[in-house]
Structure formats: C-alpha cells, structure tokens
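Chapter summary example: a protein plus nicotinamide-adenine-dinucleotide.
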Amino acid sequence: FEENKKKADAYLARFRIDGVLNHIAGEAVPALDGATFETISPVDLQPLAPVAHGKAADIDRAAKAASKAFPAWAAMPGDARKALLHKIADAIVARAEEIAFIECMDTGQSLKFMAKAALRGAENFRFFADRAPEARDGKSIRIPGQVNVTTRNPIGPVGVITPWNTPFMLSTWKIAPALAAGCTIVHKPAEFSPLTARLLVEIAESAGLPKGVWNLVNGLGEDAGKALTEHPLIKAIGFVGESRTGSMIMKQGADTLKRVHFELGGKNPVIVFADADLERAADAAVFMIYSLNGERCTSSSRLLVEDSIYGKFTEMVAERAKRIKVGHPLDPQTVVGPLIHPVHERKVLEYVEIGKAEGATVAAGGYKVDGPGGGCYVAPTLFTSADNGMRIAQEEIFGPVLTAIPFKDEADALKIANDVQYGLTGYLWTSDVTRAFRLTDQLEAGMIWVNSENVRHLPTPFGGVKNSGIGRDGGDWSFDFYMETKNIAFAT
Ligand code: NAD
C-alpha cells in the first residue's frame, strides 16, 4: 500500500508540473484565454493539478480540427483502422498501472476495481476494432426491376461528453466505436476527474492516431459542454451523465439538429423472491450497490424483498455491508473509497438525513467515516422499513446507499419496480423460470439480469428506457448511432 502511494505520487508529478492541458490538432495546449481550474483528490481534498478551462473558442478550434481530419480518417480502409485501434489497446495495456493509480487518486474509486479499468478500456478498443472492417456493410434488397443497396457512412465529427464516476472506462466505451466507425472526435470530460482523459488521447496518438482525429477540451458543462452541443460542425453528441443534463443537451442541440445518444441515471431494482438462492442474491445485491462506491449508473439502489424473507434477507445484507472495508483507494483491501467531491458527499449525506426524516430505519452505516487523508468517506448504508414513495426510493443518490422495500407478491413487486422515473437496469432473483419470463417481460428497464449481478457482454445492447436514456451502445448499435445509413436503388 505504501509502495502504491509512492508510485501514484510519481505518476501524478507530471500533472502537477504541466497541468491538465487540452489537446487540439495533435498539440497539447492551454485554454485560449489561459484560464485554469483546480481538480482536487477526494482522498485528502488537496489540489491534484490545474486544468485548462476551455470555453466556446477552444471548442470551436477543436471542432474545426476534427472537421479537417474527418475526410482522411473516414477514407482510411477498415482494416487499417482496425490495426490502429488494436495498437491503441496495446498501448493502454502497457500503461495499465499508471492509468489505474491516477484514476484512483482522481476519482476515489478503489484499486480493487480500477486495476481492471484499463484492461476493460483496452477490450473496448479491441471489440470495436474487430468490427471496423465491416462497419459500412449493409444489405441488398431485390425486387423485380430494382436492386437496393444499403450502406453506412460515418456521420462526421462527433462530440463525446462523459461523467466523473469511471471516466477512463466510459470514455473508451464511447470513443472506440466512434473511431472504428470513421468519425473524428471532440471529447469533453467531467470537470471533477479530468486526468485520465488526458492520458488516453496521448496514448492514442503515441500509437499512431493521426493528429486532429481525437481532440480534447476540458471545461465546465455550462461553457465548454454547452458550446460543444451547439457547434454546427459537430454532427452528433454521445453523452453519459445525469438525466437533467441530457434534457438540457437536447435543447442546446435543437438549433443544429444534433443526433443524440444518452446514457443517463438510474434507480435500479434488485427483486428477491423467497425461492431464490439467498446467499448468492445477498452477495450480488451488496456488490451491485457498494462496489464503485455506489457511484455507478447500473447500481441496484432499491432492494425489493418478498415479505416472508424481508427481515432475514435485509439482515444478511446489513451484516455484509458492515464488513465492507472503507479506506484509501490505493489500499488493495479497500472496497469503498472516498466519494468524488465534498459537494457530492454532502448530497449523499443529505439523503441519509432525508431517509431518517422520512421514517426509514438505518440498518447499516448512515455516517461519514474518518478515513485516511480525511477525504469524502461515507459508510455503506442500508435503509430498511422503507416504502417506494420515499425520496430515498425515488431519487438517484449515486452513492453507497441502499433502500430496502418489502413486497407482497409478483404483481406488487412489478408495480414497485416500475414506479420510478428511471428504467436502466433490473436484477431478478428467483428459481421460478416462468415467473422470471413473465416479470422480465413487463419490467421497465433496458437491461435485466436474472440470478446474476451485472455481467457485461460487449456485443449485447447497453442503454435505458424512460428517463435513463435514449439509444443503445454495444455491438452494432454503437455503429448505428455514429453512422448514416444510405440506400441506393438501381434499376435493372
Ligand atoms: P452530469 O450530467 O452532471 O455531467 C456529465 C457531463 O456533462 C460532464 O462532463 C459535465 O461537464 C457535462 N455537462 C454538464 N452540463 C452540461 C451542459 N449544459 N451541456 C453539455 N454538457 C454538460 O453527470 P455527472 O454528475 O458527471 O455523472 C453522474 C451521472 O451520470 C449519474 O446520473 C449517473 O447515473 C450517470 N451515468 C450514467 C451512465 C449510463 O451508462 N447510463 C454511466 C455512468 C454515469
């Protein structure tokens, strides 16, 4: 652990000296007006680095660079693009430790999970790299007197806007398919955790990505983010973040008729029936809310438990929650690290107070932890005796806080599960297969796991319904977003 801290310090040193610069047309550059903002570490609230504070003029430069680079990048044969994206994946793997340590110190996510973040990022590149050669292929439809040929072309320069929770992995998830499709990019990362976005573009260019294909502008949502969504050269916005930000982006992009793809918030239910394997269900429920500090869009933040086992099952969960190690993100034993920022910590602790005031019982946690460095540590928290009308059951807390609600029967479980504005994921635990079919058919969610925690398989669609999103990523769905479909009809 002490060794890890020393290594992290060494990796962070260059950011302290150079700051987190923007990256436009292949050059690391400060903001045009020279402005910066500080990013702090959630471990000790100390500044990590000054960050270039880009605004509309910086976005304009980046959009022009992406536009200039587009024709050559779009014209590159799919096989060549595939080879290059694999080189980027190799370069990510070669710097996996640096990425993990910097991500831990910038986000507060524990090394236990971040150690794999870089490898998952590399996997995202490899997955879409392999599909690049066929991305343009369509199909032909033949009728008497006519043959229709359908093809796809990259839509143009696109904007990618990402959140702070797992910035490295999420950036690769959005950017790799855009590059594989033949689009060029302007990336605006989240202001709370901008460090690894800088590494990522640097890694991509060191692997041979042509200048201007990938541009990075740091800044705040209301200036750099807004300008990106309004820029006429940017044809589409891939966005991951809060639902209300998605709604703003839709309005901002209206004048330029932006195509949008939204991965938004969630208040995801894990539904546990009495006939389930309760030990496995308890492990999975605990993993899905407390891993990644609960700062995870797919977290199972509502625990719906059948009446007959409610007391027993919530005790199993409480007992596990109390055993979770909260600590320094670089300590290999840590599961829950500090939350991203004091502002977010305040929000999470306010919800704890709201839950108590609403009459729910704190069965585990419910307090700030005095952790190493004095940062934003919050104990894994479980509320019992809750009902679905409470704010702690309706609103996305985005922290290690779980709300357990009893249900009577299948119909009641379904009603409670669907009674929220969100619909990202659902988790169902039962040994009754016919019930699983009935329930999953009616559950309002884009992704459902039966008798499992969230295990991602990249070719499957990822996305939400209701206020949780618009569109799907993964497999060919990502290409559908980043490409235009064209039909050519030949008379025969
Ligand atoms: P956020 O919406 O506050 O910010 C996300 C990004 O949008 C940031 O880069 C921010 O600067 C930018 N932004 C803010 N206002 C903007 C504007 N007006 N125009 C353009 N850009 C703007 O979200 P956050 O707090 O960074 O992240 C947490 C949220 O992300 C949670 O709601 C979580 O559920 C969601 N999330 C969703 C998924 C998913 O796949 N569905 C994955 C991870 C996180």
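Key point: The first strand starts at residue 22 and ends at 24.
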